[in-house]
From TrEMBL:
SMART domains: PKS_ER. Pfam families: ADH_N_2, ADH_zinc_N. Residues 19-336 form the Enoyl reductase (ER) domain. The keyword Oxidoreductase applies. Transmembrane segments: none annotated. InterPro entries: ADH-like_C (IPR013149), ADH_N_2 (IPR041694), ER (IPR020843), GroES-like_sf (IPR011032), MDR_fam (IPR045010), NAD(P)-bd_dom_sf (IPR036291). This is Enoyl reductase (ER) domain-containing protein. One of its GO terms (molecular function) is oxidoreductase activity, acting on the CH-CH group of donors, NAD or NADP as acceptor. Keywords: Oxidoreductase. It comes from the Bacteria. The keyword Oxidoreductase applies.
Amino acid sequence: MATAPFLAREVRLTALPSGLPSPEHFAVVDVPLPAPAAGQVLVRNRHFLVFAALCSLIGGAEGTPLPALHPGDTLFGPAVGEVVAAPDGSALRPGDAVAHMYGWRDHALVPAAACTPLDGTLPDPIAHLAPGSTAYGALTRLAAIRPGDTVLVTGAAGAVGSLAGQVARLLGAGRVIGSTGSPWKAERLVSELGYDDVVLRGPDPFAAGLAKAAPDGIDVLLDNVAGEQLAAALGAARQGARFALVGTLSGQLSANRLGGAPVEVDAFQVILRGISLRGYTGADHPDVAAEWTGRFGGWLRSEAIRFPHTVVAGIDSAPQALQDLIGGRHFGTVVVEP
């Protein structure tokens, strides 16, 4: 069992970028950690998640459910680790595995109430950092996949998308199409994750590529990107199509880091074809997380699903890991092992 440290290391924002953040806008600093106070536990983080939404939080995108990040703030996000120390009377004990939102540091003082004990439902603790509950919730609560549906997943090689296509298939989809900007990612989506076809983002209009991949149209959209890809999906929608919007990467990863990505919608066609267009957030569906964890654990153990992820070693590498994520250099979920 690990012992309590005198110092912890954490990643802080040091300056606001004029465009997308890069390693020069962050610093890894040492900070003293006191013993846990009443209601706190000290956790040694084993892994924490690197996620694109940090780009919108830096400087303060309006309306986001998470707090904005300003110079001097420590970054945060999902993490898994083990309890190192806890005050007398705490329900958590040293050695307990937990998940929490105090990532981007090697040790964290965490309110005990903000820790979720890990019970072994998932075979690997890192799998608790997979954002698959977003895909699962959107595809079960909003899109209601029906047997034989043609499903389009935009941003299919990302953390959500790399699970979404597999989940869609397990829920009964007949044809699953993805989008990505990289030929090597497209090949992996087909060969490893079971996508039927992939539309490459590139110089040609996305709508033309989608028309080739789905000549009969699409029934369901799981959208991580918005922008041009959402507009093309609207044009390819079949009667009664269900669209679940979970991300806006085309805006979040743009130079101005805006969360939004404006799309021109032909409202007349939406009405005529009975298209539903709904946004998904986990906070609106609090029952999904536990349901997803149970099903994900079963699918992992039976090898019905794969969890593509990259582990980056060392907290000093975390700022570069974020830049590499922004640049599309990774496939699936990206985590740091501090």
